[in-house]
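I have a small job for you when you get a moment. Would you make up a two-line entry for one protein for me to read? No commentary is needed, just the two lines. Write everything out right here, beneath this request.
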Amino acid sequence: MNGGAAVKYIGIALLIAAGFVLLTLGLAFLLFRLAFGARKTTEKEMFVLPDTDQYRPYAAEARRMIRAALALPYEPVTIRSDDGLTLFGRCYPAAPDAPWLLLFHGYRSSAERAFCGGLPFGMGMGCNVLLVDERAHGKSGGRCLTLGIRERYDCRRWVDYVIGRAGPDAKIVLYGMSMGAATVLMAAGPELPKNVTGIVADCGYSAPSAILKSVIRSAHLPVFPVYALLRLGCRLFGGFDPEEASAAGALAHCDTPVLFLHGEDDRFVPCAMGRENCACCRAADKTLLTFPAAGHGMSYMADQERYLAAVTDFLGRVFGEEYGTKRLTLSEYDAIVAFDRLCFPQDHWTEEDWRELLADERAVYLALLDDGRIVGDVFVYNWQGERDYGKIMNLAVHPAYRGRRLAAGLLRAATELLQAAGLPRICGETRLSNEAMRRTFAACGYRQASCEKLHFDQHAAFTSLCFLELHLTPQQLQAAAQRLFAAPECGQVLRVKGFAPAPAGGWLELNATAAGCTLAPIPQGQEVVIVIGEGLDKAAIEAKLKG
């Protein structure tokens, strides 16, 4: 072979090698971008669940819970990551001295979607809740996610933020779902501040490398060379190595109590990974709870009662309960009556009412205590066998203790009590004007189904009729009220109350009597008209309201 031919063959070889290198780099980049590139979840996408047998039974309930979570007001907060990203979180404060619950969502999910159940639960427990947008998700910065590799450091920065805000005595629980669970587990170890008193990990994987290989196999692709190309892409274009950290490795040095939760029919993160994590954890206080037939991230939906009971018990242990619920008896009615009068000075129940109700075996009174003193209460009535539903009434919180999300905690305790009794339906009652309590019911998963007779001005002879979703403008509502007072066929109409959307946003509240009416702006409302009077004819009134 002469020199020219040799050069020619060397050139061809170099071209082939260069082509192979470029192809390798191209495939590595493509796989990296597909798996790790930032892709923000839109609000519309939050409501889209996989149309499979594992998710379909819970789709409607999940969408309702997501809508409720999105409607909750929050305080926006931001921090800086170790590598200079702006990270975003939603804070739902209860009280400065209340414990903190930090929630971390999963892979390409959203905070509100992943924790649409955990958010109202945490608020109901009286915790300060911080709902985190992981890097490259939501409103947080970042061009790529890292399956917990860098997110573990972000987690620690969020812990630092809470300590800086709440003080050195702050108590914190880290709560993660899927990738968020792996994140909080990888953040565990000697470097984690002692303020973190517990970790809840729902369907977390054992290591980024392990879940990548598992997903590749489930897609019926060869682990080699796909994983090798993917790892190369991570190192070249993401600046991280999926093998540089693992949850199982961090747990080997973890003394923090951990509650592991996992669905046994998880087809994304195998339940075996949850068992591996628990086995590797050296903490003395560790528990693994699995849920038969539950898919990925579906343990809460599959068995809410068992799930919430486990988390409630765990939080109680690691936080140390400042408040507790207690069944009170007839012998303690003096304190009960006094508290009722404090919270409802105008329309409290009488001593005779309380004596009769507390003596009824179907009734249960739950009190929230602080150093033995009643600071909140709720009354529940079990109508099983008679009306086959439970009723929640008289929910109240001491004026000095309001604003701490205690009402939601009481409501959830009452709900769990009635659920344990096997009641098919649970109903709550509150006045339509009590916007705070209506928000509490909504945050705890209740929806308004109907309106019942309300009591006004202590006139037992008066009746009230409620009409929903009439879609009246403020002007139409005002005109309809005037028609009612001028129509004897409707009965003796004494008062009309209602709400209508304001043209400029918000709501207008109507208060009308025969002497006149007012329209006043309010921040929140609902399309409802309440007619109060004597001898009311519902059909005639409805006809007048519709014009």
